[in-house]
Write a structure and sequence with these properties.
With about 290 residues, the protein is mainly α. The protein folds into 2 domains: about 180 residues, no CATH class; about 55 residues, no CATH class. Helices cover about 45% and strands about 10% of the residues. A hairpin with a 2-residue loop joins strand 3 and strand 4. Helix 6 packs antiparallel against helix 7 and helix 7 packs antiparallel against helix 8. The longest helix has 20 residues. The protein is globular, with a radius of gyration of 21 Å.
Length: about 290
């Protein structure tokens, strides 16, 4: 199919920082190890192999099997989860919030791009396995950013008092959104499919994490996508040493401030201002 392409800079949508990174400007090279060309992945794979515990692979695969218990899992996704146990398997990961009914197209673009990159890497490096991961931001707390989507020029919103990690939110009240969807979509096979997806995802699951996992699996599971909810005790145990380091040494505070100084000296805007300790308490209805 014919395509027309223009440079990112000409879209006038991206910042100078992003455009200069894509153009591989020398001022920014100090901030990253390798630019992500397909050729550069070879050295990245060798480096990564030295920094991952095989025991963690087993934990990850077992947690994923548990999280997929109630889903119809495609043969390719099942194969990818099993492949995570192997030392020559690597993940290509994207993360996104649990936007209601996927929310903005960016949700889908990010996941599809991840799947496409995985396919390119599997072709380029046949001795390795590459698995596409959608990391659900279940521990995010900004409900107002995810509780709506746009349809036919209208904002369809889930009105609910919410606090704490959004993945743990119950799905009470989404039946009202479903009624609005039915009125907006009208007749037709595609409309009926969309209605059924919403109903099966949000009216047949008790929390937003399970609902989003179901929907993403329905949309892209046949392409081998693996969907992860990191809000799990076993995964937190694996992450424990990093939490301890952050708590006692404030590592990210120091590193991000170093990056900010580099960005400012090169004429770019600071992207984020870190706290001294970048951790938070997580309980039901509290983050």
């Amino acid at each position: 199919m014919p395509t027309n392409k223009i440079p990112f800079r000409q879209t006038n949508y991206f910042t100078d920082l992003i455009c200069d990174y894509i153009d591989q400007k020398k001022e920014l090279k100090v901030l990253y190890n390798r630019f992500p060309t397909l050729e550069n992945f070879e050295d990245q794979l060798k480096e990564k192999a030295k920094n991952f515990d095989d025991i963690n692979r087993i934990v990850l695969a077992n947690v994923l099997k548990e999280q997929y218990t109630e889903l119809d899992i495609s043969a390719l996704t099942k194969k990818n989860i099993e492949a995570l146990k192997k030392p020559n398997t690597y993940t290509i990961t994207t993360g996104h919030q649990l936007n209601l009914f996927t929310g903005p197209l960016y949700f889908l673009y990010k996941i599809i791009t991840t799947i496409n990159l995985t396919a390119s890497l599997n072709k380029k490096y046949p001795d390795y396995n590459f698995v596409p991961i959608y990391w659900m931001a279940t521990e995010d707390h900004d409900f107002d950013e995810i509780n709506y989507f746009n349809l036919n020029g209208k904002k369809l919103q889930w009105n609910k008092e919410a606090s704490g990690a959004v993945g743990r939110l119950d799905t009470i009240g989404l039946n009202q959104v479903f009624k609005v969807i039915q009125n907006e979509l009208g007749p037709g096979d595609n409309a009926k499919n969309l209605e059924q997806w919403f109903k099966d995802a949000y009216l047949q699951h008790n929390n937003l994490a399970d609902a989003t996992r179901f929907l993403a699996n329905q949309l892209l599971g046949t392409l081998g996508l693996v969907i992860l909810d990191a809000d799990h005790p076993k995964l937190k145990e694996c992450f424990g040493p990093h939490i301890k380091t952050e708590l006692l040494q404030q590592t990210s505070f120091a590193k991000v401030n170093e990056t900010n100084e580099t960005l400012e000296s090169a004429g770019y805007n600071v992207q984020v201002n870190p706290r001294e300790i970048n951790l938070f308490y997580l309980k039901d209805n509290l983050r």
